[in-house]
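Our platform keeps sequence and structure together, in a single record for each protein. Because each token names a local backbone shape, the row as a whole describes the fold. One such record is reproduced below, unchanged from the form in which we store it:
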Amino acid sequence: MKKGKLLGSGVTAEVYEWGEDKVLKLYFNKYSNDDWVDHEAKVGYLVHESGIMSPAVFDKVEINGRKGIVFERIFGNSIIERLIIEPWELYNYVQQLAVLQYNIHKFSSNGLPTQKERFTSKIRASSSILRGRLKRILDYMESLPDGESICHGDLYFNNVILSGNKLVPIDWNSAYTGNPLGDVARTCLIIRPPNLSGVPDPMNMLTYYPRLLAHQVYVNEYIKLAKVKYEDIDAWMLPVAASRLKDNIPGEKKWLMKLIDKRLAQLR
């Protein structure tokens, strides 16, 4: 079968039509290695088999030296695409995101990486930035409670498709099992960054308070559903912020380092 129309492109891959009801995620050469592709295929399979509504994994292919994975096609638009045409629905979608994440956290699976394994790897990758902070952050993370929930690891509006009346999370490459509150803490950081990448300063100023309110709506909804305290979510901010440094999001390094230093100071 030949790949069809290009549907989208991201950091690691392009997504093409593959027949009528499937898509091909074709990795760029930098990411087109067996370890990377095998990992995403395995994680996608385990998550789908757990019972979570997510794209099924069908096959691995190679096209012109580039490796890819054939997934079930989820028809619809991402939440971020919906918000472009209906921005007044922001707080409704944020609330739905919290419900979706809470329901994901009800599932568990053997075979996925553990939360602390994944965080440790990402934090160590930023050792040149963290320097003397590294050991204290890792020691603190080890003191946090473990868990057995499946966590998406990168849940936000770009990674959720509105298909009919259902929200379907996609891009499970960062998934792990662990304490769900660490997963919530990461989504908190994604919702309330200091600036939106590629957006002019005046626009960032105009969107600051709506983003702050969206964060509050999201957190309040999750707390209500999971019956947890905000302090327990906040306890994960230090390792989550340190692990996010590796993502190298434009405009975030200074903000994340300030957050990290503030949390380390509170530990003294």
In short: Residues 198-203 have pLDDT under 50 and may be disordered. The longest helix spans residues 201-226. The first strand starts at residue 6 and ends at 9.
